[in-house]
């Protein structure tokens, strides 16, 4: 598979795809809360079918920039899991851009939508069929429609999408995700689903340095959070996270996702690796923020984790 491509997903065991639904697909890990008592820094009290005026403690702030036209696709709680496929609704130029900047037309240019794979789940577990967005081979449900698609792929059985290292997987915890989930071994397939409509089976692929996505996030408690996640990445590539008003993670670099015979992965983009403590971000107040996720080098991101330190 070429740079940052492939049908791979892989929430570690213990992650969840139930919770609040918005639009056409199930959301990712949900805290079960939205936003309350938000002060007027811009934005509205409800968006995308979510009530953003109930759930956070008194003194929570609404830091959605005035004039921002995006709306939540799913709940994105901090602490918790933020799935990369759950960027806001609004389309190119508003919620995502496959370039450093540009209009809706230029932000949509170059997006690869040809690697969406469904599996026929045959007995040999090798029956993935890709390049079938017109579904001429049969039903292949989409997580997001093309006009709202920044370039998504699935974990699938034709690609060798596996855990690259042995160890525990991410699981929910009282202060955010922790690496206390079920142990996996090198070469274990990441979660792969026949219906292909869950967040833990959908990731951003064929990425480009400078591209960005925006996520309306719900910060449930003030404090400093450690950042981790599940990625397939060549060494040295990374991201930045910006929440507005000087709140930023700064540059985050991911370690090389190891490719080995034991991994059974074709390249590092498909060598799914649990990473932890790769960065931090501090919030002085709980509330609603818009997170700009910018890719500074090629990688396949599935989800980020935010754990209270």
Core attributes:
309 residues, mainly beta, Jelly Rolls, eight-stranded mixed β-sheet, 1 helix, 2% helix, 30% strand, disordered N terminus
User: Could you tell me how far the N terminus lies from the C terminus, measured between alpha carbons in angstroms?
Assistant: 37 Å
Major pleated sheet: 8 strands, mixed
Number of strands: 23
The proportion of residues forming helix, as a percent range, comes to: under 10%
Question: How would you portray this structure in words?
Answer:
The protein has 309 residues and is mostly beta strands. It has one domain: Galactose-binding domain-like (Jelly Rolls, Sandwich). 2% of the residues lie in helices and 30% in strands. The protein is built from one helix and 23 strands. It has one helix at residues 104-108; strands spanning 21-22, 25-26, 39-40, 46-47, 50-51, 61-62, 77-78, 80-83, 96-97, 118-119, 128-129, 152-154, 162-163, 167-168, 183-184, 202-204, 212-219, 223-232, 238-242, 252-253, 271-283, 287-295, 300-308. The strands form seven sheets. Strands 3, 6, 7, 9, 17, 19, 20 and 22 form an eight-stranded mixed β-sheet that branches. The protein is globular. Residues 1-48 and 122-126 have low confidence and may be disordered.
List the helices and strands and how they pair.
Elements: E1 21-22, E2 25-26, E3 39-40, E4 46-47, E5 50-51, E6 61-62, E7 77-78, E8 80-83, E9 96-97, H1 104-108, E10 118-119, E11 128-129, E12 152-154, E13 162-163, E14 167-168, E15 183-184, E16 202-204, E17 212-219, E18 223-232, E19 238-242, E20 252-253, E21 271-283, E22 287-295, E23 300-308
């Amino acid at each position: 598979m070429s740079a940052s491509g492939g049908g791979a997903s892989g929430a570690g065991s213990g992650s969840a795809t139930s919770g609040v639904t918005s639009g056409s697909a199930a959301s990712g890990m949900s805290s079960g809360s939205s936003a309350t008592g938000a002060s007027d820094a811009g934005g509205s009290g409800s968006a995308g079918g979510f009530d953003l005026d109930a759930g956070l403690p008194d003194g929570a702030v609404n830091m959605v920039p005035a004039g921002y036209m995006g709306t939540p696709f799913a709940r994105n709680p901090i602490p918790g899991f933020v799935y990369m496929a759950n960027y806001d609704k609004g389309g190119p130029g508003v919620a995502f851009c496959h370039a450093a900047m540009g209009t809706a037309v230029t932000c949509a240019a170059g997006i690869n939508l040809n690697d969406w794979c469904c599996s026929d789940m045959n007995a040999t577990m090798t029956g993935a069929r890709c390049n079938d967005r017109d579904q001429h081979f049969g039903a292949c449900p989409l997580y997001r429609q093309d006009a709202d698609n920044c370039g998504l792929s699935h974990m699938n059985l034709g690609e060798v999408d596996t855990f690259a290292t042995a160890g525990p997987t991410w699981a929910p915890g009282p202060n955010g995700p922790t690496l206390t989930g079920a142990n996996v071994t090198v070469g274990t397939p990441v979660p792969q689903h026949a219906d292909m409509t869950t967040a833990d089976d959908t990731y951003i692929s064929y990425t480009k340095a400078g591209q960005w996505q925006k996520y309306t996030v719900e910060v449930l408690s003030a404090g400093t959070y450690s950042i981790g996640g599940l990625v397939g990445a060549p060494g040295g590539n990374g991201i930045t996270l910006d929440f507005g008003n000087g709140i930023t993670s700064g540059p985050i670099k991911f370690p090389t996702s190891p490719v080995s015979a034991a991994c059974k992965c074709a390249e590092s983009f498909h060598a799914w690796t649990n990473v932890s403590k790769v960065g931090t971000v501090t919030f002085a107040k709980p509330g609603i923020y818009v997170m700009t996720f910018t890719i500074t080098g090629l990688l396949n991101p599935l989800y980020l984790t935010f754990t209270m330190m």
